[in-house]
Amino acid sequence: MTKLRYALLGDIHSSLHDLTAVLHHISTEAPAAEVIGIGDLYECTVSKKNLHGQVYECVEDVIKHPDELDTLLTFPSIYGNQEERILLLTKQAEPLREFIRSLPETLRAGNATVIHGHQWKPEDRSNWIDEHLPEAAVIIHGHTHRSSYTQDEQLIVIQGDSEISLTGKRHIINVGAVVHSKEWLLYDDDKQTVRFMKA
Questions:
Q1: 10 Å Cβ neighbour count for 68?
Q2: Could you tell me if residue 11 is left (phi over 0), alpha (psi between -120 and 50 degrees) or otherwise beta?
Q3: How far apart are CA 135 and CA 87, in angstroms?
Q4: 148: exposed, middle or buried (Cβ count in 10 Å: 0-12, 13-18, 19+)
Q5: What distance in Å separates the CA atoms of residue 57 and residue 184, rounded to the nearest whole number?
C-alpha cells in the first residue's frame, strides 16, 4: 500500500539532540507517516572554503559523528552538500562512506519530488527547476535552513502549523532545518496539503 502522508526532515548536521526531538514529535503528531530525509544528515568538519584537494584517511577525520546518530537514521534519505563534501575529502572504502555514497540525489514522496536544494543558487531556483525537473509540480527541499512555501512563483506567508492546500500549478516547499530549529514538514499526498511543524 502506498503511503499517503510523509514526514520530511533535513539539515540535521549531526545534531543528535535536535533529531531525537523531531523524531519524537513525528511519532506523536504523525505516527503512520513515512519519514524521508532531505540531506545534510551529517556535518562535515572541513568547510568548503578550506577545500584544497586534500584527501583524508577516513570519514571520521572529516565528520561530526555522535555514536547514536546512525541508529536514528533508519529512514530513506537523499544526499546534501555536506555528504558531497565528505565524499570529496575521502576515498577509502568503509561502511559509512559507502552508505553516504549510496544516497540518491532525489526521491519521491508520493507525487512530490524531494531534493536537497544545493543544486541551484537561490536566485536561479525556478530556472533550475524548469530545466532539470520540468514535470515536477511539488518540489520539497531544504538547504537554506529557512522554511518557506512558494506557489506559482508567489511566496506564501506561513501561519504557524496550519494546513496549507496545494492549489495551483507548481509548489516549491522548503522544510526548514532540524539543527537548531527542530523543523519538519508533514505532507499529505492524498489531500495535497502541507503543515510546517516544529518540535
A1: 9
A2: left
A3: 30
A4: middle
A5: 34
Q: Which three cell numbers stand for residue 146?
A: 529557512
- The secondary element (H helix, E strand) that includes residue 165 is strand 164-165
All three cell numbers of 178, joined, read 532540524
The fourth-level CATH superfamily of domain 5-198 is Metallo-dependent phosphatases (3.60.21.10)
| Rounded (5°) CA angle 43-29-150 | 65
Residue 69's DSSP bridge partners are: none
State residue 1's pLDDT score.
47
CA distances, 118 to each of 38, 83, 109, 178 (Å): 11, 11, 19, 16
Residue with cell 555522535: 66
Q: Is the dihedral of CA 81, 181, 142, 190 positive or negative?
A: positive
pLDDT digits (tens, 9 = 90+) for 79-135: 999 999 999 999 989 999 999 999 999 999 999 999 999 999 988 999 999 999 999
Query: Which residues are within 8 A (CB) of 61 and not within 5 positions of it... i.e. 6 or more apart?
Result: 90
pTM above 0.85, yes or no: yes
Report strand pairing: 5-9 vs 34-37. Answer: parallel
DSSP class of residue 141 equals E
Amino acid at site 127 = N
